[in-house]
Amino acid sequence: MHDVTCSIGTELAALTELTDRVLGGDLDPVRLAMARHNLGGSARLDGGGAKLGPPHGLGGIALVRADALTPVTRDAVVLADPGRRGGGRRRFDPADYQPALDRLLEVYAGRDLVVKTAPGIDFDKIRMLGFQGEIEVTSWRDSVREACLWSPGLAAPGVRRRATILDRGEQLTDADPDDCDVRPAGRWIIDPDGAVVRAGLVRQYATRHGLWQLDPDIAYLSGDLLPDGIRGFEVLEELPYSEKRLRQALVAHGCGALEILVRGVRDVQADPDGLRRRLRLRGRLRLSVVITRIGSGTAARPIAFVCQPSR
After folding, report:
1. Residue 193 pLDDT class (50, 70, 90 cuts)
2. What is the C-alpha to C-alpha distance for residues 208 and 195, in angstroms, rounded to an integer?
3. Which of 9, 20, 188, 202 is surrounded by the fewest CB atoms within 10 Å?
4. Are the C-beta atoms of residues 301 and 240 closer than 8 Å to each other?
5. Domain-terminating residue out of 122, 145, 168
């Protein structure tokens, strides 16, 4: 395994659990020295290159000073985690990564390659660069953490997109069944994990958990049973959305603290905190409201679901 952007060695120790020999490369000699320190001195630097350390401990790790875009291995699986920040700001365009994503794909074309990217990366743009492998989106405790590109030789057959929910040990792919219904809300509304939504696998998630969609273009799901371990919102009342109607309903339910979830209703989505302030709630209960669009075109209408969260 060859980590071509090893930096201070964060990935290298973990990689030794998968393979006997690991090579880390970086252009910055200071970072290579830090990597050696972080690995307990098991990889010995020698001038501009590296030698394998002693056979004990993490002895299968070597470090080399090398440009990520200048291959120094032939058959190893290549891992790259390009820099996505510069000047204190995030880089959203993969052409601005260090090294640039298009150059990585070009240089290692035909090789087994894994590239870590930002989760918000434009999947269509990746495909336009000629990438034909699998795109995996990973989350941890309801927070989307990163996306990962797996070249065709490392991807599962027939899979182009994958969602991995680490804290639940759950994975979904675009090869999974997706024959869920579109129906009015049942007892529960579920907001799928962000990795599922980002990977475009909402229908697969719904099918697996016995749920259905409220609208074919909106990620909110519903069901009469709440899947084990999943946070849901029990519907107390459904009403056509307007601020006046919503405030009346929330006051009637004794709401004082409100969680707002919104998709497909632009004015609310742009400023949910502003809506919360304008509602001026004074009750004692903590409730949630799910505001969404149902239908499309001239038939589209905003709906609000006043809910009791499961936790």
Report:
1. very high
2. 15
3. 20
4. yes
5. 168
